[in-house]
Amino acid sequence: MPRDFTLTQLRHFCAVAQEQSMTVAAAGLNVSQSALSSSIAHLEAAMGAALFQRVPRRGVRLTESGLRLLRECLPLLEAADQLPASVRLDDEAPAGRLAVGVYEPVASLRLPGIVAEFSRRHPQVELTVLEGNQEFVRQALLSGGCEVALLYGMGLDAGLRTEVLEELPPHVLVGAGHRLAARAPGPVSLGELAEEPLVLLDLPHTREYLLGLFDAVGVVPRVRHRFSGYETVRSFVALEGYAVLNRRLPHGATHTGGRVVALDIAEDLPPVQVLLARAGGSRPTRRAAAFAEVCRAALPGPGPRV
User: Fold this and answer.
1) What region holds the HTH lysR-type domain (predicted)?
2) How many CB atoms sit inside 10 A of residue 251's CB?
3) SS3 call for 127
4) pLDDT of residue 145
């Protein structure tokens, strides 16, 4: 037997799912928290399943049933919003809210241009960016916190659907006064740096990839510092040691005023892939598809389309 639910209840559900908080969602929807809780309770009854798990002092998170509903109802609500335009045979532009997850090294260099172009093309879409490390973005994508993400091709689940936008080979970074700096752009062997202090970009999955490069050539690095910030790594390298990174910046300046130099690596080592990703089994909204098109134009690369 069909169970009654409303588009308003689905909109309330999506707001709570994306904010992961009844209080924040109620404020954004301009409804009372009690009315929002009642709406969610009616929707759970109609679905015959619990959609949220209450987390003390942290808000709510989606259950497996809730996650499946979120992936189904985002394109459903978008289609409902576009129904009047379809009846009038109008070609209505994408609108509404789009949450995008971005891994920090991608965000700092590529994202401003992508967001500016997307906003120019689709001014009716409210774009929200969730920036963080690789694991944070992966979890946001899987939990429904964002609909689409830009991240690196490392430590990902088989359940994600991805498209390669760019490949970034690793390179060595040294200070401008380093003995190898004059060799720029290189190449330099990792073996030549085996006895020098390594400044490691210490992020989930990134550290495993970087240390794996040394394993591949039989070098055991002397890790001197571990930092989670890309710019912190660059600033320390300007003073001592070296780093292995993938994202080449168009300048050698650091936040402390020091300078660094990028060197190619002599060994043939695997690059990092920049991916556009979404949860497998979900249907992309027109907003997400439009964002994907802008990303493809900014970062052209091979791969099946998301």
Assistant:
1) 5-63
2) 7
3) strand
4) 83
Which residue stretches of the chain are H helix? 7-19, 22-29, 33-47, 64-87, 104-121, 134-143, 206-216, 230-237, 286-298
Q: Is 5 within 8 Å of 39 (Cβ atoms)?
A: no
- Report which of 269, 259, 273 is spatially closest to residue 184, judged by C-alpha positions: 259
Q: Which residues does 200 contact at the CB level (< 8 Å), separation at least 6?
A: 207, 210, 211, 221, 223, 225, 226, 227, 233, 243
User: For the segment 15-46, what is each residue's pLDDT rounded down to a tens digit?
Assistant: 898 888 888 889 888 899 899 999 999 999 88
Q: What angle do CA 160, 163, 166 make, to 5 degrees?
A: 130
- Taking the chain, what is the end-to-end CA distance rounded to the nearest angstrom? 35
pLDDT at 86 (0 to 100): 63
Report in angstroms the alpha-carbon separations of 204 from 32, 133, 210, 220. 39, 7, 11, 20
Phi/psi region, residue 57 (left: phi>0; alpha: psi -120 to 50; beta: rest), is left
Single-letter amino acid, residue 261:
V
Angle between helices 7-19 and 64-87 (to 10 degrees): 130
Answer yes or no: are the C-beta atoms of 274 and 106 closer than 8 Å: yes
Judged against a pLDDT cut of 70, whether residue 2 lies above it is answered with: no
Amino acid at 155: G
How much is the pTM?
A: 0.72
Q: Helix axis angle, 22-29 relative to 33-47, nearest 10°?
A: 110
Task: Kindly report the number of other CB atoms within 10 A of residue 69's CB atom.
Answer: 23
pLDDT tens-digit series, residues 94-149: 888 899 999 888 887 788 999 999 999 999 898 989 998 888 888 888 888 888 99
Task: Give the domains, in start order, of the chain with CATH numbers.
Answer: 7-86 (1.10.10.10), 96-167+273-298 (3.40.190.10), 170-270 (3.40.190.10)
